[in-house]
Amino acid sequence: MSKVRVAAFSISLDGFGAGPRQDLNNPLGVRGMELHGWFLNTEAFKKMHGQSGGARGIDNDFAAQSFEDVGAWILGRNMFGPVRGPWEGDSWKGWWGDNPPYHTPVFVLTHHARAPLTMEGGTTFYFVTDGLESALAKAKDAAKHKDVRIGGGVSVVRQYLSAGQIDEMHFAVSPVLLGEGEPLFSGINLAQLGFTPVRTVCGEGATHVFLARNQG
Amino acid sequence: MSKVRVAAFSISLDGFGAGPRQDLNNPLGVRGMELHGWFLNTEAFKKMHGQSGGARGIDNDFAAQSFEDVGAWILGRNMFGPVRGPWEGDSWKGWWGDNPPYHTPVFVLTHHARAPLTMEGGTTFYFVTDGLESALAKAKDAAKHKDVRIGGGVSVVRQYLSAGQIDEMHFAVSPVLLGEGEPLFSGINLAQLGFTPVRTVCGEGATHVFLARNQG
Fold this sequence. Notes:
The structure is a homodimer of 216-residue chains. Chain A has 216 residues and is an alpha/beta fold. Helices cover 20% and strands 28% of the residues of chain A. In chain A, the strands form two sheets. In chain A, strands 5-6-4-3-7-1-8-11-10 form a nine-stranded mixed sheet, with helices on both faces. The first copy, chain A, has a two-stranded antiparallel ribbon with strand order 2-9. The longest helix of chain A has 12 residues, at 132-143. Chain A is globular and about 45 Å long. The model of chain A has no long low-confidence stretch (mean pLDDT 94). The interface between A and B is medium-sized, with 27 and 27 residues.
């Protein structure tokens, strides 16, 4: 059964999914990169970037699982790149080089139309200008019986959460206190949305928390 | 070296230290009791209440440690009891029977004066009407070289945190989503206050997170 899920989403101990003052030098906001320390060390991450080595273990297992059975992704525009306003030509092709780690259709939420961009390795970026619902419908269609993964950023996750569209969430709580930034859950009533805790597992570099929404 | 600490303080996955709509039937707020499931099972908890049995393990070790080297406690009035307004006689003596689990001086923050209340087992409740700073000074004095433990509730912890008075915190994240209630850290910048993560340990029924404040 196809699900809409958030997976391996890093947050701080104090609940921030990104740091404050995002800009070109700090695409994840100030200190935002620290949230991902657990992931950057893993074999799964190295493999994604065509490298060998990296740590195995609990963190790596969950990182790898987060990519399994995903048939389509949805990303906010800021996750796709630092470009703001209308696209200026086709020069920006994402942060990930010629062969991005998605290997599926990826739907990028934007206010500015752009032709689809086909990359190596099965990734095609589609730029969706008619909103969240439309992006989700397209992603579900593209994913067939596989899952749709909401990649982020924080704002996109919050919007799909609030709309009651997310079935499962796995977030990785990093041993970091940011103090400020983009809170992932603040003002969102997860209990009312029907989420219940499934399990919590301490990894080498983060605590993995799994939530699922009751169906019906 | 004497420290001011919060220990074994239960919060939900979504950051609430108590549920909403606290009243006589729900002294911890609606569903607030669920936050303490990890603790109620422990040998340390049973022992506190004069019972035998209870689970040993990680949760129990941290529960037991939370009582070690404590020379004085500070509690908010709502933690001491459900009575509001002026004390009506001496009939309310806390939730804990004749021999409360503190065995130290306990300073209760209140707006209403009351004579000290000496219980069995070394616990004396002192009622402090001249504010947080005064209560802390009295508690430090009473604790001598031992620690002062800020017992709660949420509001008291938040006030001492905001005042920069807390040196160490151990909170136990329970696998519960409350959705609403009293958030422990919301609006408090722990990084700016100088806190850094010390360690995270998964127990049988909660995830234990330890923070410490950099001195100087």
